Amino acid sequence: MSRLDEFNGRPADAAVEALRACNAAPRFAAGLVAARPFPDADTLVRRAGEVARALPWDEVELALAAHPRIGERVAGDSAEAAASRREQASVGGADDATLAALVEGNRAYEERFGRVYLIRAAGRSPEELLAELRRRLGNDEDAERAEVVEQLAQITELRVRELVS
């Protein structure tokens, strides 16, 4: 049995629990579980992105609460913590100056926007993460919210694909 078949066949509460590690917004998991069964992983991943991109801002904020700061070592053995460690693995190889700049940038971002800086870290170098952080500090609130939603959707898609692949 494939991991997708397992996901499709899980009881709803178990499927919701598995999806919470992909996106902690309650409407996300509920929306995806209600759409089962999925014929293939690509359809599931595409739907996950659609649901994530359509979340109301209060649900996005709930999802953000589960994400650590970029460059912060995540403790714990939850699926969310493990995913964050994998996604941010490149940051561990950053030089001291880049790490210090990320810490300072995170602080500035949180002061400016009142939330954690969220970015799809997977596949990006520490320098890219820092450059994006600096660029996004120039956004207004509406533009930044749109970027946050898109980054959340990309992270969600990666995690859902990993869940069923």
From TrEMBL:
<dbReference type="GO" id="GO:0019628">
    <property type="term" value="P:urate catabolic process"/>
</dbReference>
<dbReference type="GO" id="GO:0006144">
    <property type="term" value="P:purine nucleobase metabolic process"/>
</dbReference>
<protein>
    <recommendedName>
        <fullName>2-oxo-4-hydroxy-4-carboxy-5-ureidoimidazoline decarboxylase</fullName>
        <ecNumber>4.1.1.97</ecNumber>
    </recommendedName>
</protein>
<dbReference type="InterPro" id="IPR036778">
    <property type="entry name" value="OHCU_decarboxylase_sf"/>
</dbReference>
<keyword id="KW-0659">Purine metabolism</keyword>
<feature type="domain" description="Oxo-4-hydroxy-4-carboxy-5-ureidoimidazoline decarboxylase">
    <location>
        <begin position="11"/>
        <end position="160"/>
    </location>
</feature>
<dbReference type="Pfam" id="PF09349">
    <property type="entry name" value="OHCU_decarbox"/>
</dbReference>
<dbReference type="InterPro" id="IPR017595">
    <property type="entry name" value="OHCU_decarboxylase-2"/>
</dbReference>
<dbReference type="GO" id="GO:0051997">
    <property type="term" value="F:2-oxo-4-hydroxy-4-carboxy-5-ureidoimidazoline decarboxylase activity"/>
</dbReference>
<keyword id="KW-0210">Decarboxylase</keyword>
<comment type="pathway">
    <text>Purine metabolism; urate degradation; (S)-allantoin from urate: step 3/3.</text>
</comment>
<keyword id="KW-0456">Lyase</keyword>
<dbReference type="InterPro" id="IPR018020">
    <property type="entry name" value="OHCU_decarboxylase"/>
</dbReference>
